[in-house]
Amino acid sequence: MKSLGNIRRSFAPWNDPSAKPYISFENVTKRFGDFTAVNNLSLVIFEREFFALLGASGCGKSTLLRMLAGFEEPTSGRILLDGQDLRGIPPYKRPVNMMFQSYALFPHMTVESNIAFGLKQEGMPKADIDKRVAEMLKLVKLEPFAKRKPHQLSGGQRQRVALARSVAKRPKVLLLDEPLGALDKKLREETQFELMDLQQSLGLTFVVVTHDQEEAMTMADRIAILDKGQVMQVATPAEVYEAPASRFVAGFVGNVNLFEGKVATREGATARIEDGKGTSILADNAGEAAVGSAVTFAIRPEKIKVSSREPAGTPNALAGEIYDIAYLGDMTVYHVKLDAGPVVRASTVNSARATDDPLSWNDRAWISFLPDAGVVLTR
Ligand code: ATP
């Protein structure tokens, strides 16, 4: 497999002020009766981007996708594709194709007929269809299965047929609604990489809807995190994880410890945050948070060190005891109940087989972290 590293590393049109958005949602609202599913949402997606819409059930992800595909029209606002307002353009005239979670394969048709279906409907000459189908079968590595029917395939193979069928007409944009939802965990992970390869080799723009944050983090160039029909943050997976814009995003993506407190003192960008109950934290990158204001210090479990002795020379060392331990094979997660009250989650990668500092239930323990290991959130 060819590494996508160099292509993906240099791909960042969102940082280029002269780059033209390919898809734009401009103040889009969608109401069903008096229920607002999408609320004055604006968002841009760039050509060849692998873009993920991530959010809990009911947040409006599928509605956004359906409006882009043309199955729904916005109540207000507009959606542009390559500069063209899509309002009133029927689904089949949009350079967009949608792959549904159910795949919707025709059960009585062979794999190749399933892939050929849309091309036949378009009236493509038979020789061209045969050529395109062969190309698609090769792309999704299903050549030996061309004559089989869907029920003679595994879940992963069916997923690939659906994918081949949805890209056979060479849409410019492929919309995928929970594309891997029907696959088990291991197959899901393999297929995520296949999807990324496919997207790169076809040079398409992918917009994928998922409620699985790991999936979005793995595949996407950028992720939009949605809540109640609004965008909470749009950023790269690393930014969403390392620099969440709000408590909601920090809590939604990955595990996080949240300390609520007030800024007690500030020196430059460094703030001392106190909760008034005995927990005091020194944090860098305090942004605009003023002295006296309420903030949340968010820190990921893997940024916290747990030790059986009080660590020396660190500005943030908090004492407590081991409350719970989860050994997960590749890592161990400790829950440490601090003397001051909060329970903190800390994880350690098990890179060595035996640990030289074994910790057990109810042991005294210290957690420590650097002032720049977390983020200070003001909303
Ligand atoms: P899920 O992950 O469960 O698919 P989602 O984020 O994709 O959720 P949407 O399908 O976009 O959510 O739905 C957003 C909200 O709009 C939901 O509360 C849903 O009940 C409502 N909704 C969607 N379609 C309609 C409709 N045709 N009529 C009325 N309400 C609708």
**Structure annotation, total helices:** 9
What's the CATH topology name of the largest domain? Rossmann fold
Q: Describe the sheet with the most strands.
A: 6 strands, mixed
Looking at the overall shape, the CATH architecture of the largest domain is: 3-Layer(aba) Sandwich
**Strand count:** 20
Give Rg in angstroms.
25 Å
Bound molecules: adenosine-5'-triphosphate
Question: Into how many domains do the coordinates divide?
Answer: 2
Describe the structure in your own words:
With 379 residues, the protein is α+β, with helices and mostly antiparallel strands. The protein has 2 domains: 14-248, Rossmann fold, CATH 3.40.50.300; 255-377, Beta Barrel (OB fold (Dihydrolipoamide Acetyltransferase, E2P)). The protein contains 9 helices and 20 strands. Strands 6-7-8-3-9-10 form a 6-stranded mixed β-sheet, with helices on both faces. Helix 4 (126-139) crosses helix 5 (155-168). Bound molecules: adenosine-5'-triphosphate (ATP). Adenosine-5'-triphosphate binds at residues 32, 35, 37, 55, 57-63, 211.
